[in-house]
Amino acid sequence: MSMNVAYKGPADCPGVIPVFPLPGALLLPRGQMPLNIFEPRYLAMIDDALRTDRVIGMIQPDSESGETPLSPKLFRVGCAGRVTQFAETGDGRYLISLTGIARFRIEEELSTTTGYRRCKVTFAPFESDFHARAGEDAVDRAGVLKALRDFVDANDLKVDWAGIEEAPNEALVNALCMMSPFGPREKQAMLEAPDLKTRAEVLIAVTEMELVRGSGSEPTLQ
């Protein structure tokens, strides 16, 4: 099942959304995130989303906040996605794909009896997210590719260089950030970068620090 809708600005987005706390999961505007849903509360969340606007907020729990694992504190910024692919398995799981719409900031978490968490959010601080390929010309593409090559060489990885060379800067930077193996704090820094140029700079810096850490010299970014 494929579903499409256009969100042209913050005013088009819902003010209250369900949120899916998932450490290390980074969704960015126009990015694609596959999810395997099996917990009953999140199956219910998907059912409810499909009956309404199909929007779900991906957000990371703040594991260093000291709150209980059952109800962890959330980072304040996440990214909303729309369910654009949906399939149900024979054992009751949902296989879905979210397409990133825009980042949001939590204004208030609402009391709920649904089992999953819902928040009042604002998209207003992230107006630029609604404009595809905004800020691409300012990205240090050569620096991004160098950091990627160094990381690939250090970890003996294989990548589709032809596809990478053809990707526009926004798709390249956001895809590399989403697929990167870094921790929640690093992922959050990429998410909260004010623009594409800064996100690319964070990606380069975190990658370089990880390479240094891998050599046994310095700790990773905290």
UniProtKB/TrEMBL annotation:
* InterPro entries, per the entry: Lon_prtase_N, Lon_prtase_N_sf, PUA-like_sf
| Cited SUPFAM superfamilies | PUA domain-like
Task: State the PROSITE patterns in the record.
Answer: LON_N
Q: What does the record list as coiled-coil region(s)?
A: none
A Pfam family: LON_substr_bdg
**Taking every annotated instance into account, which residue ranges of this chain make up the domain Lon N-terminal?**
17-211
Record protein name field: Peptidase S16
Q: Which organism is it from?
A: Methylobacterium terricola
